[in-house]
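Quick start: what a row looks like.
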Amino acid sequence: MKELLEVIEGRRSVLRFKPDPIPNADLEKILEAGRWAPSYANSQPWKFIVVRDPERRRALGALVERILVFRPGRVALSSPGVGEAPVVIAVVVDPARSPLHHLEAGAAAAQNMALMAHVLGYGSFWAGVAGRGEVEREIKRILRVPRGMRVVALLPLGKPAYEPEPGQRFPLAEIVVQEQMG
C-alpha cells in the first residue's frame, strides 16, 4: 500500500476516460470511502447517487460544460469527461441534517471517494455544482433530488484515457503562517 501522503500527492484530475466498466466491488469501496468521511456531530448529511445510464450521464456532462469558467491567461477545463465516464457519482447533501456544515461534509465525502478511486487505479475530477443556480436546479431535476437537498459535486469515475501530468503546489513557506497573519 502507498503511504497516505503519496496517495494524496498522486491524485490528479482526469478529464477523459476509457469506456471500461467499473466492477461493483470497486465501486462499493469508493462509496464506502465517502461514507466514512468526517461530518459535523457525525450528522452524515450525504446521499450518493450512482449514475450509469449513458443518456443521463451525457445530460449531466452538458450541464457541467456550461459551468466551466474561462479566464484570460489560464488553461480552460473543457472535456466530455462527465458524459463519457462509465460512472458518475452525484454527492448530494441534506441541509436539515447539518444546517451549518452540510457543504463541507459533502466535500469531504467527495475527496475521500476521489482518493479511493485513485488507489484503485481510476481517475476522477471534481465538478463543483453547489451554488450554480440554474445548473444545480437542472441536475436536481435530472436526478430527482428532493427540493431541500443540495448537489455539492459530480464525481465522474473511470480508467484514465491518458497519463495526467504530475501535480504542482506552492511551497509550504508561501502558504503556512505561524500563529497569526500580518
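That is the whole record. The radius of gyration is 17 Å. DSSP finds seven helices and five strands in the chain.
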